[in-house]
């Protein structure tokens, strides 16, 4: 039996379109808690964040915003993420070895999730000083404002800059990279080339400058063609690399890693992704590891799935993966 905590973070402040703030509700409607209990797990706590301050709850809702110096909605997104960090530090508990499931929301939630994890783990009597990351996403999310400002086609949304802020890529927003929601307790970057794997992204998506950054910094990457060739083997390879280094690993799962032609659940379409079965096979490998202690599910837009058939498939894949932890 695995103890599980479910935390809903209903923010869409950093993304393209409205809808993701309802993802947690849709995942509950698809039976996540009931199915986990029926599988023999114990759901020890559930929390819904962003309810403590009216201004923060309002800022978490998507609204049109201009692209200013290559960025949209900077201040409201930062307000939301700092509040999420504060709430997570208050509500998370890792002492009993529980698995923590975070229901987004857009990709920016990963920043306070990692920051809060470091804060909590660093304060233990036997502290864990680093956290591994599996970044399972259709994108590498290494955009920076100058790139977005230079291109009329670039969105300027902050979830496309998530890894830039986590890794402090040159040119990222200092307001984000140094904020409490995006830093270790000592003020350093949350993600480095030594503690993260970029998994299953479309290799044609990153710009040349993104590929240069990945290569020059020695980042561990397994792009979509490698994963499609053998999803289970690729997942085992990524997991083995992290397990040899870390006892606490976070799995970031953005549903846009799945091809939108087959599975159009993601907030923003990607037509060069994994097959759903491939993605779910990789999830089963990752979630079966006792060192994978937390998971974020992001970019689910229930507006794209009125019958909840795709959301249900995601829920079932997560439940199936966690069965291996008994």
TrEMBL record:
PROSITE patterns: ARGINASE_2. SUPFAM superfamilies: Arginase/deacetylase (SSF52768). GO terms for cellular component: cytoplasm. One of its GO terms (molecular function) is manganese ion binding. The keyword Nucleotide-binding does not apply. Signal peptide: none annotated. The keyword Manganese applies. It comes from the Eukaryota. Gene3D superfamilies: Ureohydrolase domain (3.40.800.10). Keywords: Hydrolase, Manganese, Metal-binding. Transmembrane segments: none annotated. It holds the Pfam family Arginase. Belongs to the arginase family. This is Arginase family domain-containing protein.
């Amino acid at each position: 039996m695995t103890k599980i905590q479910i935390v809903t973070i209903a923010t869409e402040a950093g993304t393209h379109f409205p809808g993701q703030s309802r993802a947690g509700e849709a995942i509950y409607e698809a039976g996540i808690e009931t199915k986990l209990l029926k599988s023999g797990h114990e759901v020890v706590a559930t929390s819904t964040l962003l309810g403590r301050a009216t201004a923060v709850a309002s800022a978490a809702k998507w609204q049109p915003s201009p692209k200013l110096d290559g960025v949209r909605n900077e201040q409201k997104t930062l307000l939301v993420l700092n509040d999420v960090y504060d709430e997570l530090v208050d509500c998370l508990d890792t002492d009993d070895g529980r698995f923590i499931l975070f229901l987004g929301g857009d990709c920016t939630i990963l920043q306070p999730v990692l920051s809060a994890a470091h804060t909590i783990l660093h304060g233990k009597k036997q502290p864990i000083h680093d956290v591994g990351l599996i970044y399972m996403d259709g994108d590498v999310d290494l955009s920076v404002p100058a790139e977005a400002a230079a291109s009329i086609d670039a969105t300027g949304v902050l979830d496309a800059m998530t890894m830039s802020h986590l890794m402090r890529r040159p040119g990222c927003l200092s307001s984000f990279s140094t904020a409490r929601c995006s830093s270790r307790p000592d003020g350093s970057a949350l993600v480095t080339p030594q503690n993260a794997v970029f998994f299953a992204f479309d290799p044609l998506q990153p710009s040349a400058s993104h590929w240069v950054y990945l290569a020059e910094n020695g980042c561990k990457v397994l792009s979509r063609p490698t994963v499609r060739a053998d999803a289970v083997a690729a997942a085992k390879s990524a997991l083995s690399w992290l397990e040899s280094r870390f006892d606490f690993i976070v799995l970031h799962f953005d549903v846009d890693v799945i091809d939108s032609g087959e599975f159009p659940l993601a907030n923003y379409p990607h037509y060069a992704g994994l097959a759903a079965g491939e993605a779910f096979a990789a999830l089963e490998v990752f979630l079966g590891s006792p060192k994978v202690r937390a998971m974020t599910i992001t970019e689910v837009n229930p507006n794209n799935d009125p019958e909840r058939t795709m959301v249900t498939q995601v829920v079932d894949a997560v439940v199936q993966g966690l069965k291996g932890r008994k």
